[in-house]
Amino acid sequence: MTRIFDFVSAPAPRYLMRLALLERMIEAAPRDLRHFLEIGPGLGDVSAYVASRFPSAQGTLMEFSEKGASMLNERFVSDNRVNVLCTDFQKHPFTSRFGLIMAFEVLEHIEDDIATLGKISQLLEPGGVFLFSAPSLMRKWQQCDEYAGHYRRYERDEIMRKFPAAGLQVEALWSFGFPVTELLYPLRQVYYSLQRHRNPDQTKEGATKKSGIERPLTPSFLKAVIPHLLKPFFLLQEKVKKTDLGDGFLVIARKPE
C-alpha cells in the first residue's frame, strides 16, 4: 500500500513525526473528495499523497513564495489535476469551495490568524474538513520560532476557542514530535541561532517565504531508511498524542453540514 512517506522529499525527523499521525487524519476527508486546497504546501509532499489517495480530486496549491511556487510547478508539471498558484491566500478571489483544506505550519506565520480561520471556514463545503498543524505551547518558544518569523506557538485552549468561533468543529487535537523533538532540542537551538546570526536582517515575510522549502533534498535510499529508524518513536508518540509532551499540534476540524 502507498504510504505518505513514499512522497517525502526531505525527511527531517520532526516532519516525519508529524506525517506519521497526519496519514491517519487524512482518512477523515470526504470519500467523494472533488477539490482540495493546501495553503503553504512547502515541497508539496502532502498534496502529492492526497492526489494519489483521491485520483478523482482536483488540487489547488497556494504558495506565497515565488521560489516555492516554481518548485511545486516543476514537481506537478505532469499532473494536470494539480494547479499551483503563487499568491496571498487572504487576497485571492476564490470562485469555488473545497471538501478538504490543509495548512501545516502556516498560521503561526500570520498575524491575524482569526481572519484566516474565518476565510478557511467560508471556503469549506458543508461537512468539509480542515487539517491543521502548528508549533505548540508558548513556553516552548525557541530559536527556530525566531528564525522562521513566527507570531505565536498555539495553546490547546486557544485552538479550542478560535476554531469554533470560526465555525469549525474540532474532532481531534493531537500532539506530535515527542520524544524526537526533545532529544534534538539542543542541536536545533544551536543550528537556528547560527542561522539567525547569518541572516540578521531577515524580515518575517522573508522568513515565511523560505519556511518549508529550505530543507535539503535527500537521496532515495535515505528517504526509505529514516522512517524505519523512527518507528519506535512513532509508537511512543502514538501513546502520548493526547498530552502536551510534543512540539506541535495536529488538528482535524470540520464545518458542520
Provide the structure class. alpha/beta
Query: How many individual β-strands?
Result: 7
- Gross morphology is globular
What is the CATH top level name?
A: Alpha Beta
| N-to-C order of helices and strands | HEHEHEEHEHHEHHHHE
The quaternary organization reads as single chain
In the sheet with the most strands, the strands line up as: 3-2-1-4-5-7-6
The CATH architecture assignment turns out to be 3-Layer(aba) Sandwich
How many separate structural domains?
A: 1
Query: What's the average pLDDT?
Result: 92
Radius of gyration from the alpha-carbon trace, in angstroms? 17 Å
The percent range for helix content is 40-55%
Strand content: 15-25%
Q: Major β-sheet, in short?
A: 7 strands, mixed
Uncertain runs are none
| Total count of helical runs of at least 4 residues | 10
- Amino- and carboxy-terminal Cα gap: 32 Å
Provide a descriptive summary of the structure in words:
The chain is of the alpha/beta class and about 260 residues long. The chain has one domain: 3-Layer(aba) Sandwich (Rossmann fold). Helices cover about 40% and strands about 20% of the residues. Helix 4 (about 115-125) links the parallel strand 4 and strand 5. The protein is globular, with a radius of gyration of 17 Å.
